[in-house]
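W.,

You were right to be curious about this one. When I first looked at the sequence I had no strong expectations either way, so I just let the prediction run and decided to look at it fresh. Below is the sequence, 855 residues in total, followed by the output.
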Amino acid sequence: MQQHKAIKARYPDAVLLFRVGDFYETFGQDAIIASQVLGITLTKRNNGGASDSELAGFPHHALDTYLHKLVKAGYRVAICDQLEDPKTVKGIVKRGVTEMVTPGTATNDKLLDFNSNNFLAAVHIANNAYGLAFLDISTGEFFIAEGDREYADKLLMGFKPAEVIFQRQNQRRFKEEFGTRFYTYTLDEWIFSFPYAEEGLLKHFDTHSLKGFGIEGADAGIVAAGAVLHYLRETEHPNLQHITSIHRLAQADYLWMDRFTIRNLELIHKSGEGSQTLLDVLDATVTPMGARMLRRWIVFPLKDMQKINERLQTVEYFILQTELRNQQLHALKQCGDLERLVSKIPLKKINPRELLQLARSLTQIDTIKQLCMASENSYLQRLGDTLNPCHYITEKILAFITENPPALAIKGGFLNGGVNEELDGLRNIAQHGKEYLLQLQQKESESTGISSLKIGYNNVFGYYLEVTNSHKAKVPAAWMRKQTLANAERYITPELKEYEEKITGAEEKMLAIELNLYDALLNELHDFIAPIQANAQIAATLDCLCCFANNALQFNYKKPVLHEGDELVIKEGRHPVIERSLPPAEPFISNDLTLDKEDRQIIILTGPNMSGKSALLRQTALITLLAHIGSFVPATEAKVPLTDKIFTRVGASDNLSAGESTFMVEMNETASIINNVSPRCLILLDEIGRGTSTYDGISIAWSIVEHLHHATEQPKTFFATHYHELNELENKLPRVKNFHVTNKEVGNKIIFLRKLAPGGSTHSFGIHVAKMAGMPSSLVNRANEVLKQLEEKHVDSALAQNVKGLTAPKLQLSIFDAHSQTFDDIRKMLEGIDINRLTPVEALLKLNEIKNLLK
């Protein structure tokens, strides 16, 4: 218990699994946590003191069953093992923590989702600069980035790390800026220093500078990367040879989407129960590494025209070359998770079965290489040329490991015959032991004439010869008597003793030889980690491109044309997610759309509720996005300008935990868009201003449209709204065009045709939608009565007249209510009061005066 106390003091914030014999035990508070999370019995033990100590444990072989439950429940787990063999040590066995498992450092298959990365992130905040590092220890992928708070926010949203580490003094700031949606852990300030981080990286990569990785100068990012490596050392992860490289995520290389856009477009995060994301409908990959890469492509679309066209041309080539695509997919399917298999080598966690799978995967890489080299596509040839099947090590593994090896190396019997002479000799003894004993028994029986002679075995004497009392007189003098039974005697002979030594030591010797040879093979594999990781990346790329080709064929996607101009033209565009979730008999209504800077910079889209305005906005963004990741798009034709930013403001939910209303969230997101527009961006706004009063909402929406129209960048904008008054802007601003989503009234019913048409709409059909939603008919009838009375009194006509009378440049709608002047008077009165000289009576009189002003 003193030993436990000393080790626990070093890991106070972790659940300590303390190995005692064949069990992992937990004590005190750890035992209470373990019993609750794992559902195991909580008992008590007395350690000679006055107080009892809680105790809960489980067998050591059940570690995999229980470990992932503790980590998934949000606990850090320190695994404390026996560092010495109890058979060879007198007294207490030396123990120590061999591994610390946290959500971000997990390598166990049960803790990992094969289709997504498990990133550990570090955030270094230096004034207003943010350095970030993302490492997946299970694959060896290591990224750094730096930028402003918005970029950091976007990266955290896109990478969705399992754990985030940062400086202890930044705890409040991190929570305020990035929320509480991450599992976090704080470290001391000295760890986040540039010299310490740089030294750690240079030592890890064994280089003299970081120039070769293209990260020199990214000081804040380097500090974050150094903190990640420090944290891994601190959590007992010394074997990191599979982290062979580090990549910089430069903001300029990718199409920018802030975290609101990633959320609003539902790219990788579901909006609710049963909903589908873009990733869900696109992902037809056949390898786990392909699925992980596709996820990253969606969040980081390309901005480089050449790279995008390379992908598009290869997808087109795969569509035309059906046989090649099928052969590639067949080979890729058999590759398994090459990336995660290779990362287990330095961690010494790869078992014989996985090692054999690694060799088989490399055999498939050879097939993939030949297919790529034989193709007529230059990009495929270049990928094929980079592939390295690692013939030497593949052949060695296949020669070493048996066809059906055990899952654990400790069980032995996984090496082929002919690998080691001594091993073969020992196996011969072990396997042919019974035959030898029968021969010995027969030989002794014949030489002595004892017909009932038997060879037996027990734990006390080992092998013995058993002779019944009736034949006792025939026993030779050289035999040594060991035991007397009621009706028999047991003897041993020198020959039997010699054989016993051979056979009993054979099992242990065989296992020792196998484990030594296995260890040597793993050490040899270290030289092949980098090329195998490169193979995994190329296989993942090919998997994504084959997936795009299959999607295009199956769902009738067409190749988009990317160009350097400004015109966005989509013919018969469809929403890739909605069209897949429709009932089989219901077709998706496609729409044409054109946006440019000359004539149609801003489209104001009006139409009834539920008519599909939001879907139209989203599908425009998704088609643009798909084109930039190198995928074909759901349209008959798409001419997409090279875009550097996509902004969306679609839907909002109250951020009540941060004290923000729906309207505040809406304004925050819109402000972020307005302040970051660029000449090549695409802006999609839905229902701006609806969270406040009608006058305020129209004023804000109107001024936003006008601001974007007059902006020097002239961003292409699609603006959906319920404020039909905004249709007036078409007459005042030359590049604003009105469109509406069509509908048809049949009696008192409304049918949504979901087709885009020029011109504005003047009706929202809100009451019809309320009826469709199942509102009581009495309520719907009353709403119609109120609407009729309001329309008769022309309540809206004054507003409509006011809007028509507005002149575009001088537009100045008040965003205050009727009390604005009164509030102004009160403000002036309060400013003129000297509080320090005010008596209580005078204060009450002033309060009364203010109250009268408000009447």
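Here's what jumped out at me. Residues 653-659, 810-816 have pLDDT under 50 and may be disordered. And, maybe more interesting for your project: The CA atoms of residues 564 and 642 lie 6 Å apart.

Coffee later to discuss?

I.
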